[in-house]
Amino acid sequence: MSKFHNPLAPKFGRLKNKSSEIKAWVRELLNLPDDTPVTVAELACRDEGCPDIETVIGVLEPGKPIATFRVHLTMVEVTRASVAEAVG
Length: 88
Hints:
This protein has about 90 residues and is an alpha+beta fold.
């Protein structure tokens, strides 16, 4: 029996995989240990000149303020190069 694919269903699986990929890039680019929490989320951006949706990356290193990086792309559009530019 073939599994039915609902084209209108949320794309959670795809975003979860992309989120994991972005987190791996951040860890690599910032030389972070595997146990350092990194968050990735798509958020609505209301600032002028900002796209409707942006990807926000948070790095929660113990003993340091939370570092936040913004990529003005949807999560599926984010590339390793755009993450490298954001984390500078």
